[in-house]
Amino acid sequence: MKRYSSVLATLVLLLIMVGVASAQIMPPPTAPICPKPDTTASFYLQQGVYNKLPVWYFCTDTTDINFASTIQQPYRQLTLAPRLISAGGPLTLPPVATDGAAFLYINTGYQQGPIFSTIPGMATYSGIWEVAFVIWNPGSYPKALCSEADVLAAVAAGKAHLSLTYGTSFKKVILDCPIMVVGQLSNPLPTYPNPNTPYVSPQILNIYTGPGYRTVMIPAYSVYCQELIAKYIDRCRVIIPDVSNPILATKLRANYAPFLTAIDPPNRQFFSCVTGGPTGNLKAPSQLPVICQCPTGFGTNQLNLYYTPVMNLIYLNPGPNFPSFPNMQLCLVTSCNAVQTAITKGIYTATDIAVINAPVLDCQRAFPVCDP
To answer: Taking the domains of the chain in order of start, what are their residue ranges?
Structure first.
């Protein structure tokens, strides 16, 4: 219990120090790009539908242990992220997106992909989804549903009803599924927007197509994260497909996801990015961004109840007590405790920039230099 209490205390202190309750600050167009991608990640794309147009997406995280324990090759196993449960809200008619999650409909009576209710750039897009199951009533003949309007029409006609639970999912299900393309998918990608392809994620580096599969390659980022139990420092790989800040979204070529800001701050974590520091020969080239919570594994092997892919991106700028030559100490900041200490000592000042969707893909133990 003491371990978890100390984690909560650290998170609360960072919330106070950074001031995430205030409006996010728009970085000026001339501000440095932070973070910078240093690797890539590839995903098998799945197909859904939005307003009768195909939607190409992949999923990374979920709150539901059944979704996390089900491996559908060749797709990656979903990571259990319990804190996402705060997203979404009650199911009403018509459905209303709340707390950072729009609705994604699963047609239980017909074999098809999910029906999306929003796409990148729209006010209710975050990349985080609350699942609503379409259950066909007795005597009704299931059919394909190609839009949210089709779903609501079937419900209004008494042919189907909606539920937040179904089968072995006994409570609401939240999924993290960034959208990559809305419309026609081809290699090379078509020029967009056009009537057949209204949206393509600017992050896409390449599309690979083959018999029965399509994969996408996007930028990825290396970060430091301290393990919850063993306290080792890991070097983890994350992606940032969705960003709430329009200027930063443009800089990172990410989906603009304004609805991420509706996810309650206590159920986000921190992504600390050092934007300034030593220069010339004294610059520490291995200083990576720092996140507070990383998964202990993937699928049902993920036991860190504090992990969430939704993060407050904060910029760490040199503070009034930042060491200067000749008293410079080359020191990597590798944990949230170190970030907190550096802010307290005036080594860095923290600025809240955006809410980002940054799923952790994998982690390996690293060897940190030191913490301030």
So the answer is: 9-40+220-365, 41-181
